[in-house]
Specification:
By secondary structure, the chain is mainly alpha-helical. The protein has helices at 2-26, 32-43, 51-82, 86-98, 107-119, 129-146, 150-164, 171-184, 189-206, 210-224, 227-240, 244-253, 259-264, 267-277, 282-288, 292-302, 306-316, 323-337. The chain has 18 helices and no strands.
Length: 338
């Protein structure tokens, strides 16, 4: 009788814990422990008289406990970073999941996205959770519309936003600019996510605009593929830290290329003007940009037709921030029809 009472009490406690895991699932927490709770509840008193079952329980509990520890730390960070209680944050994520992206992503995925934002300093602090949610919603819609992983999308968006100091309110425009690199160049979202952070950091430090940088990157990928990211990054580094011999070679051409030019002019246009000033003489151009990888990047911009280059540059200058929402809406219409 005592064993039966103990089992009944244990079963009730596990069932209560299991119900609480619904909230944890909404927050993107690993719920392996909940599965263990279910197995205990279902096993009932038999587990106490079955040696093999008891061994399995202990093994499962050991593994599950470590995951619970991780989950608790995760939820605490998520809640503390947003200045919301776990319950309030859960409600907000459920609302966000239903508001436009519910058919494409689970609230748990959005929770991880919000967590990554908070970890990156986006939306951290009292009253700022809306910023983290807005960035997550933008990334989630793009990921759902393009079948690209939310993790890759988030990385590209966060890296770029941080490098250029762009606010959460600009996330839709930033995401559209990132998408144009893929659409107008010869690259993919995985390559973009892996490389755009370091490129953006270097380019932004020179003061060159995000539109100019991304247009040059898209153009360069048509010739260099994924190598364009490194080539354009090295090009920015070379142009912002010119050696005396490079400056001398520029003076001989009577061409101005300094920090002010990088801040105020389009990179591709500057490279094409330099190519024209040098009469297409690669020997002279290599004296100005001696680093081989940087020179490959420069040459990929210099030798693109002016018409094609200006077309790409123009596209990057016409970003409205509406494209991501439109792409998502269209993708959902297609799903509905199917």
């Amino acid at each position: 009788d005592k064993l039966g009472d103990a089992v009944d009490k244990l079963t009730k406690q596990w069932n209560e814990l299991y119900r609480g895991f619904e909230t944890m699932q909404t927050l993107g927490v690993d719920t392996t422990f909940a599965e263990l709770a279910t197995s205990v509840g279902a096993a009932g008193e038999k587990i106490l008289f079955n040696v093999q079952a008891t061994k399995q329980l202990i093994a499962s509990a050991t593994q599950a406990y470590s995951k619970v520890e991780e989950s608790v730390a995760y939820v605490r960070t998520l809640s503390a970073g947003s200045q919301y209680s776990v319950e309030d944050l859960t409600d907000k994520l459920k609302t966000l999941s239903k508001d436009g992206v519910g058919s494409a992503l689970k609230s748990g995925e959005l929770a991880i996205s919000v967590y990554n934002n908070l970890s990156a300093g986006i939306g951290a602090g009292a009253g700022k959770i809306g910023e983290a949610l807005e960035v997550s919603q933008t990334a989630a819609k793009y990921a759902a519309a393009t079948n690209v992983s939310l993790d890759e999308t988030q990385k590209a968006l966060n890296f770029t936003s941080q490098a250029y100091g762009r606010s959460a309110g600009e996330s839709a425009k930033t995401m559209e600019l990132l998408d144009k690199v893929v659409q107008l160049g010869v690259t993919n979202s995985s390559e973009l996510a892996a490389n755009i952070g370091s490129l953006s950091a270097v380019a932004a430090s020179t003061g060159n605009s995000i539109e100019s940088t991304f247009a040059a990157t898209a153009i360069s990928t048509k010739t260099l593929g994924a190598d364009a990211y490194t080539a354009i990054q090295r090009l920015f580094s070379s142009l912002s830290n010119m050696a005396p011999q490079s400056k001398k070679a520029l003076d001989e051409l009577g061409f101005t290329l300094n920090a002010e030019v990088l801040k105020t002019k389009d990179l591709t246009t500057v490279m094409q003007d330099l190519y024209k000033a040098a009469g297409g003489n690669t020997e002279k151009l290599q004296q100005i940009i001696p680093e081989s990888i940087a020179f490959r990047g420069a040459l990929s911009l210099m030798t693109t037709s002016v018409t094609d280059a200006q077309s790409v540059i123009g596209d990057f200058g016409n970003v409205t921030g509406k494209a991501v929402g439109e792409m998502f809406d269209e993708s959902q219409k297609t799903i509905t029809k199917r």
